[in-house]
Specification:
heterodimer, A: 6-stranded antiparallel barrel, 31% helix, B: 172 residues, mainly alpha
Amino acid sequence: MLDIRRRTGILLFVMMMGHIFLISVQVQSKSGVPMLQAVTFGAFAQVQGGTSSVLHGGRSFWGNYIALRGARAENESLHKQVTELEIRLQEQRALAQRATRLQELLDLKASTPLPTIAADVIAGNPNPGMRTITIGRGTADGVEANMAVIAAAGIIGRVVGTPAAHAARVQLLIDRYAAAGAVVERTRAGGMVAGIEQDPPLTMDLVSNQADVKTGDLVVASGVDGIYPKGFRIGYVESSEKGPQLYRIITVRPAINFSSLDEVLVVLVPARPVTPEAEPEAAGPTK
Amino acid sequence: MKAIVVLGALAAAIVLQATLSGMSMAGGTRVNLVLVAVVYVALAFGAVTGLLAGTAGGLAQDALAGGIVGIGGLSKTLVGFVVGVLGAHFIVAQPVPRFVMFVGASLAHELCFQAVYALVESRPFTVQYSPVLLQALVNAAVGVLAFQLVDGAPGLLQRRQSRGAMITRRRY
């Protein structure tokens, strides 16, 4: 049995609430709504807000934690898929680049009257001191020593040594022992382009101080060496200044990017000896 | 018995208050007999009885006076409870402590009453201290007098009964 005398606080609270309720029934808020209704609505709105927050929290907890139990495995699977797709994308990109290069070579092959054969670069140079590459064509394809090797952008080098049946070594034009007869296209000033161990890796020697050579001039093969076809691009003049003696000091930036050689064309024209004494050695340096 | 006494006191206070509603003291202050009865009951019978007496007396007074029913009840409920609690913890058997208690209860009741009205009607809380203080003093005087009367009534009755018995014995 509840003894209200021992529950004075409860009794006071009940009485106070009763009075407040009674007052609220009679009083209207500023908006004209009865205070009881306004308070009830406000309190109910708070309850609704709390309930909504709890539901939202529960839904968020469920959606972000409970329902994501399989997300880790799915994430790993997706990572694998992404990795595979990236690899395939790189493969496709490489194929596209290769197709572009082959198209350029095909265009070059079609535009030049010279007999050529396309070859893949199958290896780089094992000796850092020598700038050579190995191509996948050899004597079985008609490749011989001192044949010029070109690409769509310009001259690459020449075949050196005795080719194998299905492979040949190519000395790049930027090798320090390589050289080629060259001429400045704009002024027809002639000279000799040779590889050097610096940047840019080509220099043009034997050009008279009187010659008109400017930065940006195109340098092409003159054909006097009997190896490289006349008129093919070698590079662009990067600097040109008068030398202390008879010849200008000229550096040339190659037209070819030698760091990314994949497919080349071998000009199937045997080297033409300039003079009987000057016939190049098969595997020796040209310079 | 206690309930009857309390209800009787409250009824008497309400009737008397209603009868003397036009009675005006100096400065226009009127005595609040219902509040005096509530405080009296709280001091005499404790917090719970004071609380219930405050509720009943306040609601009845509100209902009779018009206006918002519950504000007077709320104020008197609080005052009855607090006075009852204080009366249980302090010795208020002498006139002076009782007087102080009545004055404090009257002031607290008026403050609470005005505060709730200000809150309900959304108006600034203002209290005219002089009339309130005067009403508190009058309430206290009436309350202390009531205590004196009630406390003295049994002795007076006994003395009268004793005197009547002596006269009867002398006569007979």
